[in-house]
Every structure is written in C-alpha cells, then in structure tokens.
Write a structure and sequence with these properties.
The complex is a heterodimer of chains A (about 300) and B (about 280). With about 300 residues, chain A is mostly helical. Chain A has helices at about 10-35, 50-60, 60-95, 105-115, 120-130, 135-140, 150, 160-175, 175-185, 190-200, 205-230, 235-240, 255-265, 270-305, and strands at about 40, 45-50, 265, 270. Chain A has a single domain (about 50-305), classed as MetI-like (MetI-like fold), CATH 1.10.3720.10. Chain A starts with 7 loop residues before the first helix and ends with a helix. Chain B has 13 helices and no strands. The chains are: A mainly alpha (about 300), B mainly alpha (about 280).
Chain lengths: ~300, ~280
C-alpha cells in the first residue's frame, strides 16, 4: 500500500503565520529573557551572570527602589481600574441591555474614547486639567476648592497625579468591559427575565439573582484583561508626564520603568540587560496573573457549572 | 409586569443616566475640537463657548501644515495599518483554516502555541525585537512595524477565524472535494463564506495598530517613518505653548480614527463579542 503523501497543503496554510509569529514574537521574547541573564562587560562582551540581574533588581537599592515604586504604583493603577472601570462598565452594560430605544447610540458614543489613541486622550485631558487654561476653576470655586493647590494642578502633585491618570485611563477604557458585559447580558434568554418580572422581582433582584450569576465567567475575563493591560501600560504616562513619570516618579509604572531602564534617561545611559530583566519581571507578573485566572478562577467556574 | 407609570419612570431614569455619561464622554473631545477653531484670546477667554465669526480662526491648522508634515505621518500610519491588516487577516485565515479543517499530529500544539500570544503582550520582547531589527537593518523602516504588528495581531486572528471555519457545514467542502477541487481551491471557496468574520478581525486588529506609540517610538522614530500618533506626540511636546496648534493637532489626529470607527463600529462590536465567547 502506498503511504499517504506528506500533507503539504497544511504546511502551506500554517507556515506563514507560524513563521512570522515565531520570528517576531516568540523568538525575541526568549532572546530577551536570555539577555536578562547576561551583563555587558568592557569591550561589549556578554558575561553570563545567571539570575544576578534579577537579584540586583530586587535588592540593590539603585534598582529596587524604582522597581518597587513602579510596581506599587502599578498596583494602585490596577486597583482603581478594578474598583471603578469594571463595576461602572457593568452598570452601563446593564442599562444598555434594558431594551430602551436608542441604546446603540449611547453604546457607540461611550465606546468612542476607547478607539482613540491614548496619546491624544492623555494630552487632551492634560490641557483640560492645565492650570494655564483653568477651564475647571469655576467648578472648583463652586466646590469651595478654588484655593486648593492640589486641585488646581492635579497632574502636578505627587499625591494626586497617579489617581488622576488612573481616572483618565478608566474614562478612556470603560468601553471594553462595557461591551464584554453587554455581549454576555444579551445572551441571557429573555424568558428568564420576563418570568422573574411576572413574579414581581425588581431590577435589583433580577440583576443579583439572574443576570450577575450568568455573567460571572465574563467577570473573570474582564479582570484578567484589565490586569494584563494595566501591567503593560505605558502610552498614557509617557504622553502626559514624559519618560520620567513625574512629579518625582509618582506616576512611574512598570512600562515607563522598563522604557527608562532600556533607553536611559537624563545622564544615565540605557542598560539593555537590565531592561530585559525588567521585561522578564513584567512577564513573570503577567504569567502569575494568568495562572491565577486559569487555575484559581476558571477551574472553580467549571466545578460550579458541572 | 410593573405598573405603567413605574415603567415610564424607570426608562426615563435609564435615559438620564446614559445621557449624563455620554456627555461626560463627549465633553473633552468636543471641547478640544471646538477650541481648535478659535483664536488664542477666545481659547483662554471663553473656553466653553463655540467659535463665533469674531473668534473663528484656523491659525492652528495653518501652523500645523507649515511646520509638521502631518500628511506624511498620516500616510505612514495608513500604509502600516493597511498592510498589517491584510497580513493579519489573510495569514490568520490560512492558519485558522488549517487548524479547523485538518486533523494532524501537531494540531493541538499549534493551536496552543499560537494562542499564547493572546495573553502575553509582545512589548515584553522589545529588547529582542530591537536587536533583531538592528541585525537585519530594519530599524527606521515601516517594514519593521508591519512585521511586528502582524506577529502581534495573528494570535487573536487565528483564534477567532478557526472558530468560524469550524462552524461551516461540511457538505459544501465535501462536494467540492468530490468534484476534484484541490485543498487550495477549497480555501478560496470557503473564504467568502466567513467574510463577516474577516471584517470583524480587521476591525478589532486595527485599533491597537493605528494607535500604538511604543513600537514607532522604539523601532521607527525617524522623521520619514513617524506614524501619526508618534508625530502628534512629538509635535505636542514641542509646541506646548502654541495652544491653537496643539488643539488643531489633537483634532486632526482624532478625526481619521473617529471616521474609521463610524465605518467599522458594527464589525468592531461583533468582534468584541465573538472574542469574548470563551
């Protein structure tokens, strides 16, 4: 019997995508990880140092201070997204799913900032919050905050800049959780909700007893997407506060710290090895998040479902 | 069923909340756009008022066209986005088809291997990408951006399209096979059947490519290869004090994205929904 011919067509279909993906995504990722295990010594030679760079990043104060600062700022950034962006996005989705006229118009408008470049959004808000323009001074006066230094320049103070930027990011990205929740809510069979209404259940009860339990899987997806997006963020801080993530690194997050380490800033030259090390730590943080999601959350979901 | 009056109040309340939130969304965008057509005095004197014949001015736009080559940046963005999208959709469809249609030894492995890229951000490989591009002398070329964005977009594209291909009824393909059509011919026959999915993938892949700042900044910062986002970012930093020019630059950079959004919002929303299904 003749052997089956080698399935060339499968190779032809798969190869272009696999090659581009491997060469420009997977290979650089591993090259970067490998690079984080070396140090550049005199003459440009690469010296293997094992996990030495990671140890330096976590213990040498020159590195560990900015690292933990960026890490905790990033945690704050993430917590604000989880406590504001996702619940408000869910709330808007519930309203949009309530079968009112013109819902698609609201949906289109609320999603608009999400499709715009972070650079433009960040800069537009920077202008609006700028004390030079003073566009919201009348509002501050009415709130009795007209003389409050922090309120006048929210992006200029260590105590308020990070929170303000997080809120701008929430404002911009709320469309994503809203759409994902909306997609899940629409899939709930109408009869379920109508039956509950006939039984006299109010909107609040219907939400907690029917809608929310059925969209819990989406809550997990939104959470992990928020986590990955937040710990990979860069553009907003860079566009509004520059690579130095001012004032005094108060808005520095992992992305801007990575950029500065890699490319250098002011008088400090860039260090590609340490840059790769920071990227390695970011990868580790994101992988931990993904594993928690896959094993902690999704497995439990399956147990509940079956 | 709730009482009619209660129902009316409920609907009115929902509209009120959604209207208020829509206003919060539109206010900053309209404010920037409106003030970009005013003179410097009016921008600062009456920021909340629309331009009147007395305060109307397009000086900002004039500065923009004289100094920055925004047309050129725009063209760069257009080339990078269009070529990347064609590659993401076409190569993604080919790979998605292979994974959905053929049973072969490495099928599951390949599906998981490609899906890794959905979860892991490509930015974390930047150090490796920059060295690779430098070795191949691709730094400061649009090709570098196109290759990186294609690699970035493929995982989700393959994932979504393979699910769509898997849902196609087998009769059609079997009939074509009996007629002696080659596997390549069958692919060209089924491709039109998933056209909505192709549009969807294009729409959701477009936003991160068009709006990216990171890779243009790192791989292609030269004047000739600047994309519109990087061009706007640099311009905004340099002309910080020329408010008319800054507002004009912001408006001009936002408009193409908003137009694209209006054209593709249907596909985009379908894409977000499809991507969310597990």
């Amino acid at each position: 019997m003749r052997r089956k011919p080698f399935p060339w067509h499968i190779t032809v279909f798969l190869a272009p995508a696999v090659v581009i993906y491997t060469v420009f995504m997977i290979y650089p990722m591993f090259a970067s990880l490998k690079f984080s295990l070396y140090q550049t010594v005199e003459g440009g030679r690469q010296l293997f140092v094992g996990l030495g760079n990671y140890a330096r990043l976590l213990s040498d104060p020159i590195w560990s201070e900015p690292f933990w600062n960026a890490f905790w700022n990033n945690v704050v950034f993430f917590v604000i997204h989880m406590t504001l962006q996702n619940p408000i996005g869910l709330f808007l989705a519930v309203l949009l799913a309530a079968n009112i006229r013109g819902a698609w118009i609201y949906r289109t408008i609320i999603f608009t900032p999400t499709i715009l470049s972070v650079v433009l959004i960040g800069f537009a808000w920077k202008l609006i919050l700028s004390p030079t323009w003073g566009i919201w001074f009348p509002l501050l006066d009415r709130l009795g905050l007209g003389d409050n230094e922090v309120a006048i320049a929210l992006l200029g103070h260590e105590s308020s800049a990070l929170i303000t930027l997080s809120l701008i990011s929430v404002w911009q990205n709320i469309g994503i959780p809203m759409m994902l929740f909306l997609a899940a809510l629409i899939r709930i069979p109408h009869e379920l909700i109508e039956a509950a209404q006939v039984d006299g259940a109010g909107s609040w009860r219907i939400f907690w007893r029917i809608q929310f339990p059925l969209i819990v899987p989406t809550v997990g997806i939104v959470a992990i997407l928020t986590f990955i997006g937040n710990f990979n963020a860069f553009d907003l801080i860079y566009a509004t506060q520059g690579a130095l993530a001012g004032p005094d690194f108060a808005t520095d997050i992992m992305g801007t710290f990575f950029f500065r380490t890699f490319f250098g800033f002011q008088l400090r030259p860039g260090d590609p090895n340490m840059g790769a090390t920071v990227a390695g730590m970011m990868l580790l943080i994101i992988l931990v998040g993904v594993l928690v999601y896959l094993y902690g959350w999704q497995r439990r979901m399956e147990e509940v479902q079956f | 069923m709730p009482h009619r009056g209660v129902r009316f109040l409920r609907v009115a309340g929902i509209h009120a909340v959604l209207l208020a939130y829509s206003a919060l969304v539109l206010f900053p965008i309209l404010l920037v756009f409106m003030n970009s057509f005013k003179d410097q005095m009016a921008i600062f004197g009456e920021p909340l008022k629309p331009p009147t014949p007395a305060t109307f001015s397009v000086d900002g736009y004039r500065t923009l066209f004289e100094i920055a080559s925004f047309q050129h940046y725009f063209l760069n963005s257009l080339i990078v986005t269009a070529v990347s999208l064609v590659l993401i959709v076409l190569l993604g469809a080919m790979a998605g088809w292979a994974l959905a249609e053929y049973a072969f030894k490495l099928n599951t492995f390949m599906a998981i291997y490609l899906a890794l890229g959905i979860m892991v951000p490509i930015r974390l490989g930047t150090v490796g990408i920059l060295r690779l591009m430098a070795d191949w002398q691709l730094v400061n070329t649009l090709t570098a951006l196109i290759l990186v964005y294609t690699a970035m977009g493929l995982p989700l594209s393959v994932f979504i399209l393979s699910r769509f291909f898997a849902q196609l009824p087998p009769d059609f393909k079997d009939a074509a096979r009996i007629d002696g059509a080659s596997e390549y011919r069958i692919f060209t026959l089924v491709l039109p059947l998933v056209r909505p999915a192709l549009g969807t993938v294009a729409a959701i892949s477009m936003i991160p490519v068009w709006n990216d700042l990171w890779f243009p900044l790192i791989l292609a910062p030269s004047e000739e290869t600047k994309t519109i986002v990087l061009g706007a970012q640099v311009f905004l930093g340099q002309f910080l004090n020329d408010w008319q020019a800054v507002l004009a630059a912001l408006s001009l950079a936002m408009i193409p994205a908003v137009i694209l959004y209006m054209l593709f919002s249907k596909q985009l929303i379908r894409g977000l929904t499809a991507g969310a299904v597990k």
